[in-house]
């Protein structure tokens, strides 16, 4: 009985730790997004930021991209549209912003 309680307790502690880690990643992603992406892509990721609305080429909604595609664009940029963040963002930051776009912007 005692072993079962310990296993159940450990399971829920692990779930809580994973939830905390996910929240930290999303928070980091939101910070990066707000700093680097918001002005063009807007708060919903649909290209409706103050700069994005005034571009001659309409931005594709970010939700149409996979996490890998988002990271690839962060690394390479888009010619005449978006700078590359290959050296200015860590791989952890790029993964965090991609996760934020896929999970948190989906709710907006």
From TrEMBL:
<dbReference type="GO" id="GO:0046872">
    <property type="term" value="F:metal ion binding"/>
</dbReference>
<keyword id="KW-0408">Iron</keyword>
<dbReference type="GO" id="GO:0020037">
    <property type="term" value="F:heme binding"/>
</dbReference>
<dbReference type="InterPro" id="IPR050597">
    <property type="entry name" value="Cytochrome_c_Oxidase_Subunit"/>
</dbReference>
<keyword id="KW-0349">Heme</keyword>
<dbReference type="GO" id="GO:0009055">
    <property type="term" value="F:electron transfer activity"/>
</dbReference>
<protein>
    <submittedName>
        <fullName>C-type cytochrome</fullName>
    </submittedName>
</protein>
<keyword id="KW-0479">Metal-binding</keyword>
<feature type="domain" description="Cytochrome c">
    <location>
        <begin position="24"/>
        <end position="105"/>
    </location>
</feature>
<dbReference type="InterPro" id="IPR009056">
    <property type="entry name" value="Cyt_c-like_dom"/>
</dbReference>
<dbReference type="Pfam" id="PF13442">
    <property type="entry name" value="Cytochrome_CBB3"/>
</dbReference>
<dbReference type="InterPro" id="IPR036909">
    <property type="entry name" value="Cyt_c-like_dom_sf"/>
</dbReference>
